[in-house]
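Sample intake — Dynein light chain Tctex-type 1
Collected from: Thamnidium elegans
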Amino acid sequence: TVENILGDSEYSHAKVPGWNSAVIETILKKMKEDNKNYKYVVTCVILQRNGAGFYAGSSVIWDKNNDNSAGYRHETKAMYAIINVFALRI
């Protein structure tokens, strides 16, 4: 999903909100189609690659037997995209 939407695009501040929404909505749609027994939380951060540092963290309290998460980092010459998906069993 991320590769299809962002590919090797040049960073454009004006396009970031659209890219962000497209990534999140597409992932949510695909996840919901695959398994309707979960609630999903998807985050997407798109940053211009300019040498600045970035740190993000998260913490969860959940049922380790039924809930899960996954992260993905997309990197080009111009930007980074960091995507996290949390799946919480209903």
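Post-analysis note: The longest strand covers residues 38-48.
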